[in-house]
Write a structure and sequence with these properties.
The complex is a heterodimer of chains A (374) and B (441).
Chain A lengths: L1 E4 L1 E4 L3 H12 L4 E4 L8 H4 L3 E2 L6 H17 L14 E5 L2 H16 L5 E3 L1 H7 L9 E5 L3 E2 L2 H14 L3 E3 L3 E5 L2 E4 L4 E4 L2 E3 L5 H4 L6 E10 L9 E4 L2 H6 L5 E8 L5 E9 L8 H14 L7 E12 L6 E4 L6 E5 L5 H17 L13 H9 L1
Parallel strand pairs in A: 1-12, 2-3, 2-13, 3-9, 5-15, 13-20
Antiparallel strand pairs in A: 4-8, 5-7, 6-7, 10-11, 11-12, 14-17, 14-18, 15-16, 16-17, 19-20
Helix pairs in contact in A: 1-6, 1-10, 3-10
Chain B lengths: L3 E11 L3 H10 L6 E5 L6 H4 L11 H15 L2 E5 L1 E8 L2 E6 L9 E11 L3 E3 L12 E2 L1 H9 L8 E7 L2 H11 L3 E7 L3 H10 L4 H14 L4 E3 L2 E6 L6 E5 L4 E5 L2 E6 L1 E3 L2 H5 L4 E2 L2 E2 L12 E3 L8 H15 L8 H20 L15 E3 L4 E2 H4 L5 H8 L11 H9 L13 E2 H4 L14
Bound molecules: flavin-adenine dinucleotide (2 copies).
One flavin-adenine dinucleotide binds next to helix 1, helix 2, strand 14, strand 17 and strand 18 of chain A.
């Protein structure tokens, strides 16, 4: 038995769910293959910060574009998505980091992104629980937070309303227009989208992707303890580094009044267990910035894996010699933010229509080309 | 700033109830360096804590308790009171946090061990029904602890309901404190219980225990095949509704003590990687778990009550200190008790009608205010958690997850550190971890 679709999306994480909705809304006949809980992969592990980042121009364009798409969608998101435009404050520890605040403001400003420089008193007024010795920060008011598993579920529900079919199975082999499922069934399509996150390499060989582990901590409720997502300016250095293990101060207020705490980055740590030494480094860093957090309770810790590429940009579009295989993965620590833009770019590619931002920086072939030139 | 205290022991016992007391005093007999850690200020666990026992008492049960307290006092044991174990740093090292008290300036305690005996006990099972979150609707054991810490109940009307021998113990306790226990309502049927009572003839202590309860409860109706279906009240509890499946009765009362037998505390064993079977820690005849050098005793191995907890504690105390032959007679005793445990389990098996207790609006997860209608459509515990936040609050599903296992067949067994909430600063302490030499080699 086999069934045929205009596109088959593998994986119902936030990226797969977003792609399914975009394609289904465009009138395509879609099947979504998900072997586990919807939004239960990296989507369930991560922080759900809808954030503009400027590690590269391409990253800035993609995150900015996607953030606008989230803001557009926000009014229709159900309450359990917990979408809230909290804004981000990039916290500067000292005068040297204040230089970075001004640099960042200039870069954002060129893209028309509104920001506000906070000096020491302004920072203190906005976030009284931050250490009084911190120099200041940059407020990005358009940044938001949401609860990713429910966002993924909502996107998938909307796709189903547009007649997408959810197949609760695991894909075991893909190629030549066929998806073989773990029960032996075959699905057919000329467009097979591998959106299985870090598992994408199991289905598509030789992906330029590594797993990057992160630790997370959730506190008990303490409403108002922090009001914006707070991230240290050193974060970019930490996120951008492609070798050493790193931690950075990154604290998010949840609608529940809890605080979700990231973020650590470790390559090649394959097991899911919490690594105490990383956890301790991360928590100590948080205590330096928010001394008063010491007396709150931690109720759980866990880990998640990012799908990381050499240039920290996702892989969107065709990849191998097989013209039926497409990728939508490699979103590293930004897949919640960039899921909606990924879906748009993919759909633009399928229909041959003009995209709002250039697709080239995210085409998987860029990395192949680079490898050939190296 | 929080700091670390490091200690090293030959045998470390977690849990200061009867099982842990028996294990520690037995292990300490031959000069081994032994410590017992419990999150309460005093030893005794759920049953003995906060009471005093005299060996001159006429009651056999009191004599037993007094004897064990004496053994613990006379043995060389480090008593780490008010410390809660929350994580394992690595094999051979547990992390604990001091609860409020004289030692609370030491945020983190690093407890090194060669052998570990887990005696973490059990807690009540709660099942949600309309009104169960009202004020003065409490767990049976929870009401008992509140009375132990000073809640006056003299003259109060109390209905005790749910399942298990604990109901009798709690009712007797309330009577002794002057409460009017209106009735005790056991969900198991008479037929189920009769089969159990017949088997009891093999164990005289149990009959005695049973009779004591009866004497104390004279005049209090003990109804079987009867269960709670709702509780009503505006600000606080006013009446409870009980059903026998055919008709319902409404009874006015001040407190409703309600628990559905016990569920073992297996978070720490699970975190340490001990193999579980049907929700209990699997042990061999020497109480060894699947993890080398880790033993488990008392309720986590099966809800067997006091005597089994004591015998298991003794066996592990001997086995962990290399005295395997001495454990043999105890092993035979334990084997006999195990058939009791199995009968107990059958006698108090929960009836299927209880799966229909919650209605759509009934709160299932009290921490996160999640209703039954929100959770019942999901196929797995993980999906429920991720999509409804059920079990994501401070208790991390200890109550709703356990209820869901019975109501909806969830498999709610995902442990992550910390196993209980812990202060941020305690979690943020870097473990000192060096092998510290124990004085007795
Ligand atoms: C610690 C941490 C913090 C993060 N913080 C943020 C943040 O603040 N902001 C942000 O934007 N991003 C953040 N991210 C990144 C973000 O979480 C990910 O980029 C995003 O969730 C990726 O989504 P995905 O759909 O590609 O992958 P996943 O969510 O992993 O989804 C893949 C799905 O595919 C399914 N699947 C796998 N194999 C198969 C198969 N063979 N057949 C069928 N189905 C299969 C899986 O079950 C899964 O549901 C963070 C990530 C981590 C780890
Ligand atoms: C609420 C309740 C009330 C009960 N009342 C009665 C009664 O009145 N009469 C009766 O016959 N039986 C009663 N029982 C049953 C009785 O407790 C058992 O039959 C028996 O005493 C079990 O002994 P134990 O040592 O296995 O466990 P427990 O007596 O439960 O002892 C376990 C101890 O370990 C501690 N502990 C657990 N985890 C940690 C940790 N991570 N760190 C530090 N300490 C920890 C607990 O606080 C507890 O003190 C009750 C049980 C419960 C749950």
């Amino acid at each position: 038995m086999s069934s045929s679709y205009d596109a088959i999306i593998l994986g119902a994480g936030i990226v797969g769910a977003a792609c399914a909705l975009e394609c289904a809304r465009g009138g395509m006949r879609i099947a979504v293959v998900e072997g586990d809980v919807v939004g239960g992969g990296a989507t369930a592990a991560g922080m759900g910060h809808i954030v503009i980042m400027d590690d590269s121009m391409a990253q800035l364009e993609l995150t900015r574009y996607s953030q606008l798409l989230w803001a557009e969608l926000a009014p229709e998101l159900p309450e359990d998505t917990e979408y809230e435009t909290t804004g981000t404050i990039w916290v500067a520890a000292d005068q040297q980091e204040m230089e970075e605040v001004y640099r960042k403001q200039a870069v954002y400003g060129q893209q028309g992104i509104v920001t506000k420089v906070l000096d020491r008193p302004a920072l203190r007024k906005m976030e009284p629980n931050l250490h009084p010795g911190l120099a200041g920060g940059l407020l990005v008011p358009s940044d938001a937070v949401l609860y990713p598993p429910c966002a993924a579920r909502y996107l998938l529900e909307q796709a189903v309303r547009h007649d997408a079919v959810v197949v609760p199975k695991k894909a075991v082999r893909i190629g030549n227009g066929r998806v073989e499922l773990n029960d032996g069934a075959i699905l057919e399509s000329q467009r097979i989208v591998n959106a299985t996150g870090t598992a994408a390499s199991d289905l598509t060989a030789d992906l330029p992707m590594r797993k990057r582990k992160g630790h997370l901590v959730i506190t008990d409720r303490a409403p108002g303890f922090v009001r914006h997502q707070l991230v240290e300016l050193g974060y970019l250095r930490s996120a951008g580094s492609s070798t050493a293990d790193s931690v950075a101060f990154n604290v998010q207020p949840r609608k529940t009044g809890q605080m979700l705490i990231g973020s650590s980055r470790q390559y090649d740590a394959d097991h899911k267990e919490v690594d105490r030494s990383m956890l301790v480094r991360m928590l100590q860093r948080v205590q330096q910035y928010l001394p008063g957090i010491a007396d709150l309770s931690v109720i759980r810790t866990w880990t998640g894996f990012r799908a990381s590429t050499p240039d920290k940009l996702p892989l969107i579009g065709p990849y191998s010699d097989d013209p039926t295989i497409f990728l939508a993965t490699g979103h590293e620590g930004l897949g919640i933010t960039t899921s909606l833009a990924t879906a748009k770019l993919l759909m633009n590619y399928f229909t041959g229509s003009r995209s709002a931002i250039p697709l080239e920086p995210y085409l998987p072939s860029r990395i192949l080309l680079e490898a050939q030139h190296a | 700033m929080a700091s670390v205290r490091q200690h090293s022991f030959d045998v470390l016992i977690v849990g200061g109830g009867p099982a842990g007391m028996a294990a520690s005093s037995t292990a300490a007999a031959h000069g081994h360096k032994v410590a017992i850690v419990d999150d309460n200020p005093s030893l005794g666990g759920q049953i003995w804590r906060g009471r005093s026992f005299s060996s001159a008492s006429k009651r056999a049960a009191d004599k037993t308790a007094a004897a064990w307290y004496r053994k613990v006092q006379n043995a060389q044991i480090t008593h780490l009171s008010g410390l809660r174990v929350f994580d394992s740093a690595q094999a051979g090292v547990l992390l604990a946090e001091s609860q409020d008290g004289p030692n609370s300036q030491y945020g983190q305690w690093e407890l090194h061990y060669r052998k570990l005996i887990l005696a973490t006990g059990a807690q009540e099972r709660f099942l949600p029904f309309p009104g169960w979150t009202l004020r003065n609707v409490l767990g049976a054991g929870a009401l008992q602890s509140m009375v132990k810490s000073g809640l006056p109940v003299a003259g109060k009307r109390i209905v005790v309901a749910g399942s298990g021998p604990l109901l009798l113990a709690v009712a007797a306790y309330m009577r002794a404190h002057g409460a009017q226990v209106v009735e005790i309502c056991e969900q198991a049927s008479m037929g189920q219980l009769a089969a159990f009572a017949f088997g009891l003839l093999a164990s005289p202590e149990r009959i005695l225990q049973g009779m004591q309860y009866k004497l104390q409860l004279l005049g209090t109706p003990y109804r079987t095949g009867c269960w709670p279906v709702a509780a009503y009240g505006t600000q606080r509890l006013e009446t409870v509704v009980l059903s026998d499946g055919r008709r319902t009765r409404e009874i006015p009362c001040d407190y409703f003590a309600c628990g559905f037998h016990l569920v073992p505390n297996v978070e720490l064993p699970a975190l340490l990687g001990c193999h579980l079977k049907n929700g209990f820690v699997e042990v061999d005849p020497l109480q060894q778990t699947s993890v080398p050098d880790i033993y488990c005793v008392g309720e986590p191995t099966g809800i067997g009550g006091l005597e089994q907890a004591l015998v298991e504690g003794e066996i592990a105390g001997l086995a962990s200190t290399g005295r395997v032959e001495q454990a043999q007679p105890l092993q035979r005793e334990r084997k006999k008790m195990q058939s009791f445990t199995e009968r107990l389990e059958k006698a108090f098996a929960l009836r299927p009608e209880l799966r229909r207790l919650p209605d759509a609006q009934t709160i299932v997860c009290r921490c996160e205010d999640v209703t039954f209608s929100q959770v019942r459509e999901y196929a797995s515990w993980r999906a429920v958690k991720l999509h409804t936040r059920c079990g994501m609050g401070p208790c991390q599903g200890r109550i709703c997850g356990t209820a869901g296992e019975f109501l909806l067949g969830w498999n709610a067994n995902s442990v992550r550190p910390p196993i209980l909430p812990v202060r941020f600063q305690t979690m943020a302490v870097a473990p000192a971890i060096q092998e510290i030499k124990s004085q007795n080699g």
